Amino acid sequence: MVSIVLSNRAKQILSAVVDMYIQTGEPVGSRAVWKRYKLPMSPATIRNVMADLEDIGLFYQPHTSAGRVPTELGWRFYIDTILEKRPLSTQHKTKIRQNLKEAKYNIEQILRRSSHILSAFSHHAGVVVAPKFSRIVLKHIEFVKLKKDLVLAIIVGSTGTVYHRIIPFYTPIDQDNLSRFANYLNTSFAGLTLGEVRQKLVEEMRKDKAEFDAIWRKVFHLSQRVLQPENEYVYIEGTTNILNYPEFSDVQTMRSLLTAFEEKSIIARLLDRTLQDAKVQVFVGSEIAEEGLKECSVVASPYMRGETVLGTVAVIGPMRMNYGTIIPLVEYTAQVLSEILANTD
Amino acid sequence: MVSIVLSNRAKQILSAVVDMYIQTGEPVGSRAVWKRYKLPMSPATIRNVMADLEDIGLFYQPHTSAGRVPTELGWRFYIDTILEKRPLSTQHKTKIRQNLKEAKYNIEQILRRSSHILSAFSHHAGVVVAPKFSRIVLKHIEFVKLKKDLVLAIIVGSTGTVYHRIIPFYTPIDQDNLSRFANYLNTSFAGLTLGEVRQKLVEEMRKDKAEFDAIWRKVFHLSQRVLQPENEYVYIEGTTNILNYPEFSDVQTMRSLLTAFEEKSIIARLLDRTLQDAKVQVFVGSEIAEEGLKECSVVASPYMRGETVLGTVAVIGPMRMNYGTIIPLVEYTAQVLSEILANTD
DNA sequence: CTTAGCACTCACACCTTTAGAGTGCTAAAA
DNA sequence: TTTTAGCACTCTAAAGGTGTGAGTGCTAAG
What total number of domains does chain B contain? Predict the structure, then answer.
């Protein structure tokens, strides 16, 4: 958190410059801001204040005779202390809620739709990170023997997510035994996260080592492989929206941006850190360590099932995004998502 | 097919110009081509021939004092009659084969890897359209009752593809009945495509209408919903490669291109027509009806399981792509894919 | 402390000029 | 008849020069 104290007037001017810069993307001059916002002082006074704000490091001047542009610190300060959120209209809210509820029971589609909504409403890239595999709460597991040495494992999570894996298994075993084992897992571990199940299994195996026969041990091993965490799935939509912003029109910048979007693991890593804190978070510029996204801002919020954080929804765009409307958008989307997931029992 | 007959010399010059244009992307002049390819004639002669080729419509001159650029017709002719394919090196071949075989049993990953390979080797966008749902051959189907009014259906295809669907089902039914029905489907219809299964079910239901009790009919209906075709899945990788090509550096063109890539259904529609013919196909420029891709070329080949065409692999890039190496690349990738899918029984 | 006035700065748009690549045509050579 | 050298011509793109306007900082008066 930045500890800067500003006079009301300075705040007013900061706010006006930021607002105008969000719209135009060009350096904002004193006269322009004066005309536009009808501030009760002359351009000269505004100029003086702007010079002061530049001294503190909130503004930056591309060249001597240009207007001012907010610096990263400027954005940070604006977001933390001045910004007034503009709640979504009830219209928009019902639209979002309905759209997501339409896809009930199909989690993948719900998540895809969420990223679409985020993108369409914000005019930036909309991102949703699917629930982490190891955080999924086990509801049901099933093994199907496909042929002699191939087993299909199906895991149903409490949110309705379904995972399946085909695993080579070179030990002769019949479907009955597999079903019995699945049954054992279902009765003993339903309600735990897959991560926990995995761990408990290791413990069980260690504890009762003596008791187990060879086959049973193999099956334990098999389920270890089934519960191996997998890559996180990331839904991204609206990446082309960034083409509308002149600050990214440089081919070099654009390539690195789009490459970052294409490499979904980068986005997954970036949004991983939002999981710490169950509320909406904003990252500006170099607060984002990820290559290619340092000129961007991210508004992100985790979504949950009950108390458990599952994944993240986010909007990624240029620093000059309209935080006042986008923060509530992200917040609300996460909230609706959490609600929908809570009701899937 | 175009019916144009050219002298050897004209072919040689066409070939040289095309080759040089592939490398530079800029209009090719007579002197440059003469120096580079050491053709046994003077620039003036080359100029004359180039003028002739322009008359036929194979070349185009951006302005009076510029070199020549192949027209769409020019590309078509070149591809159909002059092009010499340059087979992949054994090195590359084993690399591709190994990479794909590594992911055995995980069809999704195999397809994803295929698109990655296509993109990495061609330096353009690599595309793979997953097998069409209704063409999947049924190997195994299973119903799992999740809760009172929710059924999870799992379909395993003969290629190892697994589909799952969660379906609301408001008729009280126990797991036993569901299993019995699944069993019926497995024994009666395994080996048929899902499309066929769907149709047969309708017939069965009609034929024996009288015999069925209410529940049984509901279950029939349920499986109709399960077998509903779903959107085709498309894997695209390397879309950012197009940023390297100056012909797309115009922001407008780029946006429409990237938008087309983001809207995967457009790509699916485009590649749908390749399913007709089980061999590699090339589409140039306006032969592609799809919005935003009219300045591109597509090299596509279906992949199969046995005699059945399943889906398509393709490379999408600028018209001046290196067809000589890309056609064999696409051909080979489709072939390896078909081999791998053939062995999954 | 605020503001009007003014000199000064700098990017950008616009014009002109120039260099160079490439052409088409003509007339000579093969 | 075909090929080639020579040359005038065309057009683009880069380089340089100029003017305009938005915007500043400073100073001195309100």
Answer: 3
* pLDDT for A6: 87
Interface test with B, best of A258, A264, A341, A343 (most B CBs within 10 A): A258
CB B139 within 8 A of CB B148: no
Number of residues written out for chain B: 345
HEC per residue, A236-287: EECHHHHHHCHHHCCHHHHHHHHHHHHCHHHHHHHHHHHHHCCCCEEEEHHH
Residue A315: its pLDDT value, please?
98
Residues of B in contact with A225 (CB under 8 A): none
**One domain, residues A119 and A138:** no
- Its pTM stands at 0.92
pLDDT per residue over B98-151, tens digit each?
999 998 788 889 999 999 999 999 999 999 999 999 989 998 898 988 878 889
In sequence order, what are the residues at sequence separation of 6 or more whose Cβ sits closer than 8 angstroms to the Cβ of residue A204? A220
Specify if A1 maps to a domain: no
Structure tokens at B230: 């779903």
Q: Is B46 helix (H, G, I), strand (E, B) or coil?
A: helix
Range of the domain at A64: 8-82
Residue B2 forms part of a structural domain: no
Mean pLDDT of B217-237: 90
Amino acid B44 CA to nucleotide D5 C1' distance, rounded Å = 9
Q: Within a domain: residue A2?
A: no
Percent of chain B with pLDDT over 70: 97
* Chain A residues with CB within 8 Å of chain B CB: 104-106, 139-140, 142, 144, 146-147, 150, 152, 154, 156, 160, 162, 164-168, 237-240, 243, 249, 251, 254-255, 258-259, 262, 345
pLDDT in tens, A72-119: 999 999 999 999 999 999 999 999 999 999 987 888 999 999 999 999
Asked if strand D comes closer than 7 Å to A145 Cβ, the answer is no
Question: For residue A38, what are the contacts with CB-CB under 8 A and spacing of at least 6?
Answer: none
